[in-house]
Design brief:
Chain lengths: ~1200, ~425
């Protein structure tokens, strides 16, 4: 496939640009940086395979407008003209916008897809470099070199990536993912086994428990049995002493029963009791008789004084009163002294208050009830009233002072005017007025700037604001119409130019050919031909004749060979020479005739050709004339169209605006529309701003006036400043008013307070006056003459107190008098009773004074002695009487006991009491033996075994044998116990084993973990297998490719390499590399000895390696050519680092390929075009210049 | 009368294919199969069913841990304590299991004979259950044909482990035809073996596979559980009750809807979110496959690890989602080089690959000869790496070729300009 024409209609920086790539040879697309060279190169792929969904080439033309086109020519020379749009549906169209199926294009592209095209048929400098480097990396490995050079795909990278990724998964003896996972999986599997419980194991555990239970039961029986025997024999052993004692007791019992009579139990007791009573009675009476004798002797020795006993009570009473009478005597003396002092004191007090009056008169000091309290109360009231009065007076003075100062302060306050008007003005300022002004100023500035920018952007600097709105705008349809008309004219002109160029070219070629023909030799004549033919025919006749003669001769000679002698050899030789000469002449004649005939034929065809050429030249010359006319018409139409177009913009031109290109007219209109919009916005902003400023000026004037009312004159004109001043003023007025109000309130408050305290003072003065009245009444009622004029509360209160004191003293005198009289009475009574006693009992007188108290004491002592003697006599008499009664009683008891004993002896039937005692002793002994026997038998019964059984068993054993047997049994028990314990332990163990078997999911959990590990491993292993298989496939593919293509590709590459290196290398050779055994690529230098070692890739310069890669890459393309699958070869600056010599070589190589592949070489080196023109034959180098793109 | 029909418990068989990764909700998935059985018993107790029918494969065939049996026994004991009888037949797995042979179960569990069909009658509730278990793993006889005729006056249930006439992914054991089952005159056939719920016939008689209790791998997707049968006289109704603890889903992303990898990831995430919504709040294991022709084909293959990680990270933001596997199974959006592939690089690769792939024996030798696979085959079971499986080998090989094509094709020259 070839691209005869590439239309960069609307793509990247291009607009309506076409590249004619149809001519044979090498096409160079050249342009400096920013000329859109890369864009043009990229556009090729975009045209063929669709514009990228997310294209970045929309910086001039919007996505929806992006468009490419091309005239394609397939392998058979069939054309397909396409247009590629940037859209989802029907992106591929014919020029008339009818959709073309992609499949149709794919056929033209020989089924080469975007990727293959990009990788195989496009190459840039970087790729060339990378290819050369890959050759080095592969150390010339032929398979790899061949494979690598097929396309831009870096197989080495893929191989490395495969190896690296595979190595991340597994390495022999490594710790990679698969290695580790396998190890972990093994562990988990072991864990599963470890936790797994085999069904058999459970049965075994159950059976072990059953067996252990049985064994445990059996051993328990054994132990029980041996223990029972041990216990039985142990009982026997323990009972042996009791059995012996029992036998002894039984013998003793029998012996006692045989020695004499026995008595009943009652007799034993009665004998004991009677003998005891008899003994006790006799002992007691003896003792009592001795005591009686002593008591009677005491009685006889005791005498009693009855006088004292007769007056005992009187003496006791007197003796009891002695100390009280002594005290009364002392009391009497003290009372007399006290009485005297008290009376004197009271009289003195009374004399102070009411002189001349006696304390003995109670009236003299009597006070009315509650008088003292009344006076005390009045005195307290007075204190309170006086305090209140002085406080009230003080308050009045203070409040008067305060009121005075408040009034003075109020008088000092200034007066102020009314600020309400100013406040109203402030309120009338619209909110945000200043901000609005600022905003509109900004808006105005912005729109002005925008307008300036729009003007600059669209070249409308000359257009004023009014013009922007006013300027006529040609309708877009009209513009489109004009544009279509101009485009059509241009297309026609181009087509016309093509036609004219074609015609001129054809005319030129024909004229040249005609000239050659005209310069040619004159043609031979018919006569010449005829003469030549005659010569030929004559010679033929001669030759024929000679031939016939020879034939006859030959027949003759063969006849002669049998019949006779042959022609001589000399004749034969002569004949032969003649014949040869004739034949030669004939051949020449034939050739000459043929040549003449040919020339005539050729000349005839040349004549025809000349005629045709002449006709053609004539026709083309005529056509050229007609074309010149046509051209004139076209030029005229073009002028008209241009004039019409210019007419549309007359008013614009008047303003100095250049008439736009039709393509740019839309943009210009957009500009004017934009400008008009911005200008409109700007005007609106200016209008609003004007209104706002007017309002502001009015407010400023009013503020000045109002502020002047307050005496404030200011030069400020800014509204914001004036409102600030007004605000300050309004605030100051308000503050002053507030201060005056406060002062007035304060004065009012002080006056009210003063009123209050004055009222308080009046109330206090009235209360004091009231008190005076009451006090006077009280004094009057008291009737104290000496104090009639004295109203002093203090002295009056003291007098009242004195009277009260006199009263209290009078009471004390009365009390002292009463006590004195009581003491005197008591002493008199004592003395009278003493005198009476002494006179009656002993007819004597009492002693005087204190001696009479000693007299009473002596008598009292004598009374005590008489009473003690009387009591002793009474005691002894009673004791003697009691002893006599006891002796009598003891004698009676002894007699009764003796009678009882006699009765017992008689009853038992023994001779006397002694015999009775023996029988009783025997009976007791028998009873004790019986008791002991019962005790022993009781013990035997307690052993738990029937006594008879014990006796029977004891009969089988001697103690020694039994001890030995018991010893043995103890050992047996011990053994049985140990066996039993062991079985118990075992049972516990096996039960534990069984109990430990639960329904837990440990094994299942380990299996779950193993399963997860398997999953992970499977993923990695699959990936590992994939990577390894991919590696194998790639390697095999490389090998196969090498096998199949090594020879043809290397052969072709060798030629290309030689050409590219300008003959410095002549051959490519492959050698098997000793170490790896794989073939490697080397190159032989020109003129090198065949025996010298060829140059390995590693030894080549970088540039040479690049050329080798290029040679291999270009050689590979032959495969595509062989399969009729060629595409344009798009090369981008691949000669960037080549010197001129190599570049020429490259251009020649490319030119040599250009008939098979369309070659398009993009470059930014200007001189490459010149180089190509000189290096390549005439007409084989086509340079397409791209101008620098300017965004403006 | 209420009956609960379940099958294919496969107690203690692990969930497969869930490789662990940081953030995977492993704890939520642990012991899921056991918990599903507990759910079954809970349901039986809650619904106060009259009997539980287990149609085979209580255990996993080659699983030997007797504790699994003890666990099953303990669950049956719970039913016994509630007076609920259990009828069970041995399936192919049970026949293989050694647990079956050794385990003693509570006396409420009746295990049907494996020698011949047997009928057990529950006179108190008027229920007759006919059944026969598998004596060996591969029973190829038509067991149903020998089942007895229905008992008059009873609700007749046939308990059978069978593949019927065959089903995908299940061995055709105890084969029989639906007509064979109808001919017995029963009211309900409680079947087991097929792991997907399937009502073969919805009355006269009912023939039902309840499916397994808990999905265990990516092919057992959707809700799993048991069938609750209510008999009102002779009229039977059934309803499926979900008892699974975790759920499986397969999200297939249509690659043709994705212009690039980001879009493909977006579609996959959307699919996962939908699957989560469909899982009724259960933890979810999800497999994501990118299928069909796609513009993102090469990237999906080449950046597989990154894509898997990103999807797992995205799933980590949802609750309890385990991304089991991310599989790229896309093709090129268009195959521009297909026709001309005989000359092009990719064409050569495909040709070489085709030559290798066609020779199955050579491919097997090639794969078996990979050094990293030594020891793997013996260690990893058939659920993981199936070196012995020709299909597995072919699939992995095809994927290897796709991977290679993606790597070779994707290095440079993106975009249709290709030379930019």
């Amino acid at each position: 496939m070839r691209i005869d024409r590439l239309d960069l209609t609307a793509f990247g920086c291009f607009t309506d640009r076409s590249l004619d790539l149809s001519a044979p040879g090498v096409h160079l697309v050249s342009g400096p940086n920013e000329a859109g060279k890369s864009t043009a190169r990229y556009a090729v792929g975009q045209l063929l395979y669709g514009i990228d969904h997310r294209s970045t080439f929309d910086f001039v033309h919007v996505m929806s407008a992006m468009r490419l086109g091309g005239l394609l020519r397939d392998a058979r020379g069939q054309h397909l003209e396409i247009v590629r749009h940037k859209r989802l549906k029907n992106s591929l169209c014919a020029p008339d916008d009818t959709p073309i199926a992609e499949a149709d294009l794919v056929r033209v592209l020989a089924d080469i897809g975007a990727q293959e095209f990009a990788q195989v048929f496009a190459m840039d400098h970087d790729e060339l470099r990378a290819g050369g480097q890959d050759l080095l990396d592969g150390k010339g490995d032929v398979g790899r070199a061949l494979f690598e050079s097929r396309s831009s795909s870096r197989l080495a990278d893929v191989q490395d990536a495969l190896i690296e990724k595979s190595g991340e998964l597994w390495r022999p003896n490594g710790k990679r993912k698969i290695n580790t996972a396998l190890k972990r999986l093994g562990e988990l599997r072991r864990e599963v086994k470890e936790h797994e419980l085999a069904p058999r194991d459970f049965a075994v555990a159950e059976k072990a428990v059953t067996r252990a239970e049985e064994e445990y039961g059996r051993l328990e029986g054994d132990l029980r049995e041996v223990r029972a025997r041990q216990a039985r024999l142990g009982q026997v052993r323990a009972a042996l002493p009791q059995l012996l004692l029992r036998a002894e007791l039984r013998a003793e019992r029998d012996r006692l029963a045989g020695t004499g009579p026995v008595v009943g139990d009652d007799v034993v007791d009665e004998l004991d009791r009677a003998a005891q009573r008899l003994r006790q009675a006799r002992t007691d009476t003896e003792h009592d008789r001795a005591a009686l004798r002593e008591a009677e002797a005491e009685l006889a020795s005791l005498q009693v004084d009855t006088v004292y006993l007769d007056h005992g009570d009187t003496i006791e009473a007197l003796h009891a009163d002695v100390s009280a009478v002594r005290e009364a005597s002392a009391q009497l003396a003290r009372a007399e002294d006290e009485l005297w002092g008290l009376r004197r004191n009271a009289q003195e007090l009374l004399d102070r208050v009411r002189p001349g009056r006696s304390v003995d008169d109670p009236e003299a000091y009597a006070l009315g009830p509650g008088v003292a309290e009344r006076i005390a109360g009045l005195r307290r009231d007075l204190t309170v009233l006086d305090t209140a009065l002085s406080a009230a007076r003080e308050q009045v003075i203070r409040r008067e002072g305060k009121w005075e100062s408040a009034r003075a302060a109020l008088d000092d306050m200034p007066t102020v005017g009314d600020a309400e008007a100013l406040r109203a003005l402030l309120r009338s300022v619209p909110e945000g007025l200043v901000a609005d002004i600022t905003r509109h100023e900004q808006r105005l500035a912005e729109t002005t700037a925008k307008a300036a920018a729009a003007r600059a952007r669209h070249g409308l600097e000359a257009v004023g604001d009014a013009d922007a709105v006013r300027l006529p705008r040609p309708a877009r349809e009209l513009i489109a119409e004009h544009r279509a008309r101009i485009d059509k004219l241009r297309t026609e002109s181009e087509a016309f130019a093509g036609r004219r160029d074609d015609t001129a070219e054809r005319l030129k070629t024909a004229e040249a050919d005609l000239e050659v023909l005209l310069r040619g030799d004159t043609p031979p004549t018919d006569d010449e031909l005829r003469a030549a033919r005659n010569d030929r025919d004559a010679l033929w006749t001669a030759l024929r004749t000679a031939g016939r003669t020879d034939s006859a001769k030959a027949t003759d000679s063969s006849a002669k060979a049998t019949d006779g002698p042959a022609e001589s050899p000399a004749d034969a030789a002569r004949d032969a020479a003649t014949a040869d000469a004739t034949a030669d002449a004939f051949e020449r004649a034939v050739a000459r005739a043929d040549e003449l005939a040919d020339r005539i034929r050729r000349q005839a065809s040349e004549s025809v050709r000349r005629l045709q050429l002449e006709v053609g030249v004539e026709r083309d010359r005529a056509r050229m004339l007609s074309l010149t006319d046509e051209q004139a018409v076209l030029v005229e139409r073009g002028k008209q169209a241009a004039a019409d177009w210019t007419a549309l913009w007359t008013e614009w031109s008047a303003l100095g605006i250049a008439v736009p290109e039709p393509a740019a007219a839309g943009q210009l209109l957009d500009g004017i529309v934009e400008l008009a919009e911005v200008v409109g916005e700007s005007a609106a902003a200016a209008h609003t701003l004007g209104e706002l400023r007017e309002r502001e000026a009015e407010l400023v004037t009013r503020f000045h006036a109002e502020l002047a009312r307050f005496g404030e004159s200011t030069a400020a004109t800014a509204l914001r400043e004036l409102t600030g001043l007004a605000d300050l003023r309004v605030t100051a007025v308000a503050d002053t008013l507030r201060a005056r109000e406060q002062a007035e309130a304060k004065e009012r408050s002080a006056a009210a307070d003063l009123e209050d305290v004055r009222a308080d003072l009046a109330r206090a003065e009235k209360a004091r006056a009231d008190w005076e009245v009451v006090w006077a009444a009280v004094v009057r009622d008291l009737d104290l003459d000496g104090y009639a004029d004295g109203y002093e509360p203090e002295s009056l209160a003291a007098a009242v107190d004195t009277l009260a004191e006199v009263g209290r003293e009078a009471l004390a005198v009365a009390e002292a008098t009463r006590r004195r009289d009581e003491s005197a009475d008591r002493i008199a009574d004592f003395d009278a009773r003493l005198a009476g006693l002494l006179a009656t009992a002993w007819q004597s007188e009492p002693a005087a004074g204190a001696a009479r108290f000693s007299q009473v004491a002596e008598h009292h002592e004598a009374l005590s002695r008489a009473r003690a003697a009387r009591d002793a006599r009474e005691l002894h008499a009673a004791q003697a009487e009691r002893l006599r009664r006891r002796i009598e009683n003891g004698d009676a008891v002894a007699e009764a006991a003796e009678r009882e004993l006699a009765a017992l002896v008689s009853a038992v039937g023994v001779a006397d009491t002694a015999a009775l005692r023996e029988a009783v002793a025997r009976t007791v002994a028998l009873r004790e033996t019986g008791d002991e026997l019962a005790a022993v038998e009781g013990l035997l019964r307690d052993s738990g075994m029937p006594v008879a059984e014990l006796e029977r068993l004891a009969g089988d054993w001697t103690p020694a044998d039994l001890d030995a047997e018991l010893l043995q049994l103890a050992t047996n028990v011990e053994r049985a116990q140990a066996a039993y314990d062991a079985a118990g332990t075992e049972l516990g163990r096996v039960r534990q084993v069984l109990a430990a078997i639960d329904d837990s999911a440990r094994a299942a959990q380990a299996q779950e973990a193993a399963s997860a590990q398997v999953a992970e491993l499977a993923v990695d292993v699959e990936q590992y297998v994939r990577l390894e298989l991919a590696r194998v496939v790639l390697q095999r593919c490389i090998d196969e490719y090498r096998r199949e293509n090594q020879d043809p590709v290397l052969m072709r590459a060798q030629d290309l390499f030689a050409a590219l290196t300008d003959g410095r290398f002549t051959a490519l050779v492959t050698e098997t590399e000793a170490k790896k055994g794989s073939p490697v690529l080397k190159a032989r230098r020109a003129g090198a000895d065949p025996d010298t070692e060829p140059v390995p890739v590693e030894a080549m310069s970088e540039g040479t390696r690049d050329q080798l890669y290029l040679a291999l890459r270009l050689a590979t393309l032959e495969r595509y050519a062989d399969a009729d699958r060629t595409m344009p070869l798009i090369l981008d600056d691949i000669a960037m680092t080549f010197d001129d010599g190599r570049t020429r070589a490259l251009l020649n190589v490319l030119d040599s390929m250009a008939d098979r592949f369309q070659i398009v070489l993009f470059t930014h080196h200007e001189h490459l075009g010149d180089l190509a023109r000189t290096a390549l034959p005439q007409g084989r180098a086509h340079v397409h210049e791209l101008p620098v793109f300017s965004a403006n | 009368m209420k009956l609960l029909h379940a099958a294919d418990l496969h107690i203690d068989s692990p969930l497969k294919g869930l490789s662990r990764y940081p953030g995977a909700p492993a704890e939520e998935f642990r012991g899921a199969v056991r918990r599903a059985l507990e759910n079954l018993v809970d349901l039986a107790l809650h619904e106060r069913v009259d009997a539980v029918l287990l149609a085979g494969d209580v255990y996993d065939g080659d699983w030997k841990d007797y504790r699994t049996g003890l666990f099953f026994g303990s669950q049956m004991q719970r039913l016994r304590e509630a007076g609920i009888p259990v009828c069970m037949v041995a399936g192919n797995h049970d026949a293989q299991s050694r647990i079956t042979k050794e385990l003693r179960l509570p006396d409420n569990v009746h295990r049907f004979s494996t020698a011949q069909p047997e009928t057990i009658e529950y006179d108190d509730i008027g229920l007759a259950v006919h059944g026969q278990g598998f004596a060996e793993q591969a029973v190829m006889d038509n067991l149903a044909a020998a089942y007895p005729k229905a008992r008059d006056g009873y609700l007749n249930i046939g308990l059978l482990h069978t593949a019927l006439e065959g089903a995908d992914g299940h061995a055709t054991y105890a084969p029989c035809r639906v007509e064979d089952l109808i001919a017995r005159g029963y009211d309900y056939w409680a079947l087991g073996h097929i792991h997907a719920r399937q009502v073969v016939r919805d009355g006269d008689p009912w023939i039902v596979f309840p499916g397994n209790l808990q999905g265990r791998h990516a092919r057992e997707t959707g809700a799993k559980g048991a069938t609750l049968i209510t008999a009102d006289g002779a009229v039977l109704t059934t309803e499926h009750r979900d008892l699974d603890v975790v759920r499986w889903a397969h999200v297939e992303v249509d690659g043709s809807r994705a212009a690039d990898v980001d879009a493909a990831l977006g579609l996959a995430e959307q699919g996962i979110r939908e699957a989560v919504r469909g899982a009724d709040g259960r933890p979810l294991a999800v497999r994501v496959s990118f299928v069909g022709p796609s513009d993102a084909h090469e990237e999906l293959w080449r950046d597989h690890d990154r894509i898997e990680n990103e999807l797992r990270a995205a799933a980590g933001e949802l609750d309890e989602v385990w991304v089991e596997k991310v599989r790229a199974a896309t093709t090129h959006a268009t195959e521009p080089d297909a026709a001309g592939g005989l000359v092009g690089l990719l064409g050569d690769l495909r040709t070489t690959a085709a030559a290798i792939g066609e020779d199955e024996a050579a491919l097997e030798r090639l794969i078996r000869g990979l050094p990293g696979l030594r020891g793997v085959g013996a260690t990893v079971d058939s659920d993981g790496v199936r070196v012995d499986d020709p299909e597995w080998r072919a699939r992995v090989f095809d994927e290897a070729v796709d991977l290679l094509a993606a790597m070779v094709g994707g290095g440079r020259g993106q975009g249709n300009g290709g030379t930019a």
